[in-house]
Amino acid sequence: MLKNKKHYLSNYNYWLYGKHPVISAIKNPARKILKLCVTKNTIDFAKKNIGTYIEDKNIKIEILTNIEISSKIGINESIHQGIAIMVKLLKSPSIDNLINNIKSKSIIMCLDQINDPQNIGAIIRSSLAFAADAVITTKDNAPSESASLVKASAGAFELIPYIQVVNMARTLKFLKNQGFWVVSITQNGDNNIGSVAKFNKIALVLGSEGKGIRDINLKQSDVKVKIDMSNKLESLNVSNAAAIILHQLYINFN
């Protein structure tokens, strides 16, 4: 049994903002919403898109100006788009519960100390788009749930488990014992993505753009894969690399 980071603090609330993140959060039955702030220009938008959910969750609505919302949440009005909610952190599933609920074919993203919320958010979005079952990150040197992370995912954060673990190497070993093939994406890989098309369960490992996958985690690899590309560019942004690999695996799986 593995323990993941305690990802839910009942007394920790934060402001989430922007139309896509707010809509996704309010529609998420697992998300506790404490307050909704809108402007006169966005209240009709809110009622049209999430009015039923607002009523069902008995969410308190406060009508403010853009400047007042900015002052309340500390974010420029061009970013919050005239709508913000105060939320509680989501509760992450344990690794054991995740494994118990996966399908016969599965992809789990394992991110080794990728610390940029924008990259993580983009990877979460691609993971949802291409039917991955979860995104696992390290507890250290990786972002916990926050407004910037959720916004970067464009609402996808609400729809796919985001789990932080203390020891990635131990997590990869556990996944291998559960029938997953550990596939590491690295410039030094000696296989292309087509070589793993036969695998039904894949733990897809990516590292930070600077350091890559740490040796202790790379040693857990069953297969090391590189992305075929022209010699005009040395490497890709990690979120772009993730999207390319996930798309190819999605085609293979379907």
UniProtKB/TrEMBL annotation:
Membrane spanning residue stretches: none
Organism the protein comes from: Candidatus Aquarickettsia rohweri
GO molecular function, one term: RNA binding
SMART domains hit by this protein: SpoU_sub_bind (SM00967)
RNA 2-O ribose methyltransferase substrate binding domain residues: 15-93
GO CC annotations, alphabetized: cytosol
PANTHER family, A to Z: 23S RRNA (GUANOSINE-2'-O-)-METHYLTRANSFERASE RLMB
Domain of life per record: Bacteria
Keywords: Methyltransferase, Transferase
Gene3D superfamilies: 3.30.1330.30, 3.40.1280.10
Keyword Transferase: yes
Biological process, per Gene Ontology: methylation; RNA processing
Name of the molecule in the record: 23S rRNA (Guanosine(2251)-2'-O)-methyltransferase RlmB
Alphabetized SUPFAM superfamilies for the sequence: alpha/beta knot, L30e-like
